[in-house]
Amino acid sequence: MTASTARFVGMFTPLLLLAQMGSAQTTPGTSRYALTNLGTLGGKYVEVEAMNDRGQIIGMAEFPGDTQWAHGYLWQKGKMKELPRFQPLGINDDGQIVGVRTDLRAVLYRQGRISPLSSHTGHSLEGAEEAKAINSQGQGVGWAIFYTSSGPHDVAVLWRNGEAQALNTEPAKVSRSEAIAVNRLGETVGTAGFPPLPDSNPNVPWTDHVVLWRDGKMLDLGVPKGFQETDKPAFNNRGQVVLEADAYRPNSAGKHGSFLWEAGHFTPLSPPPGFRYTDVYAINDSGLIVGDIETASFQKHAAIWKNGRAIDLNSLIPAGSGWVLQQAKAVNNRGQIAGEGTFHGQSRAFLLTPLMRRSVSARACAGIHFL
Predict the structure, then answer these.
(1) Which of these, 53, 54, 99, 90, lies nearest to 234 by C-alpha position?
(2) What is the mean pLDDT of residues 152-174?
């Protein structure tokens, strides 16, 4: 379905535009955005999964009347197109998409055709596997079920040339591992299950840590002080990692935080005043981080972190647009942001594109026609 794009610059007169450039609503050093409604496949539900540097977006959406099943889509050039019977999870700049079919086989979609990522299923249990991401070299990462002496285990894998290779977890004794993202250098980030600490969650037989695979070795990133587990990592081509952390100790049960990891150090990604909770989903090569923040009444707002400072994305779009931006799920190296929210109360997905910021004088505006 063709998306409706609101080009907000053209909605204002030159004098009002000049006034808004100095408005208190715009945080210094940040950009305002053109806002695009991605549309739907005819149903009510739309979810964003990933976006590449060309602005192609993948995710899941409903058909009219769907109650249990959603359909994968590719959004590009203003149109949302259904993908053939698989859940898309990662896309590279060549438009190659990886994901998982309903039979739990990792698949690759390119040039309109879908094919298994692995040339055989002998490495895993009944072919159970899932591809999470793919880089510009065509390397896919995810997980597959491998047999070991103690039985089947989820193991982080890298797919290359039709073969699944288990990522090295030695010398650590991990019970499970999963690869979640891969950058253009072939570095991979994911999670691994380590033996639980005495004061960890007693209901979980392992403690998850975010790990980084680099040069054939696995690096445990550890946990921020006061936390026991880390999860949900994303990273960029500079090796900066964003992640979430949780605590289960009796005196800190339910404690949650978001962090930036760089060169062995954790930096907290705090919410702005008036908010209490954060989630992070992606980071681009400029260090722009996207996620969401939560109010005391449990309402989510899409947010960015720039130079360590959180900004509610709803403050960077015009009031009265009809949108409430709730989650920013992806960001590319052009600064475009994709996510989910509501438009006049209906669940929708959005694309934000930074507007050019120029020094404009009243005389320069003379004769300019605003569309």
Answers:
(1) 90
(2) 87
